[in-house]
Amino acid sequence: MRKNILNIFAMTGVTLVVLSLVALCYKASFLCLDTVFQALGVNALIYFGVYIINKFEIPYFLLETTIKLIYSIGLILVFGMIFGWYENLSVTVLTIMSLAILLICTFLDTLSINGEINEINQLIQDK
Prior knowledge:
Blueprint: H1 2-25, H2 33-55, H3 61-83, H4 91-126
Helix pairs in contact: 1-2, 1-4, 2-3, 3-4
């Protein structure tokens, strides 16, 4: 459970960095505080949805990845309407941001898994 919460907060951190970079491109002067909590909520829903999709153990990697992407981007687009994100961002920019965030989080997750593998291998060699 601790790792899940840590991953959600890490994903939210990545989201805020990407959002800040996009805001910088639009010459925005501030980031609203409620956006931080909205991003945290959406990221928690994405993370738990992907966790549930992983439980199905779909044998086809490409199909599983496609389902995760459609779920994640669909959720972001729906909450974009609910939270009024389209007042400041277009659907295209929000979708590209979503893809960038998911790509960065996948990369970070892969690094974490590699670190765990190396730690396990080191423990095996020590025995």
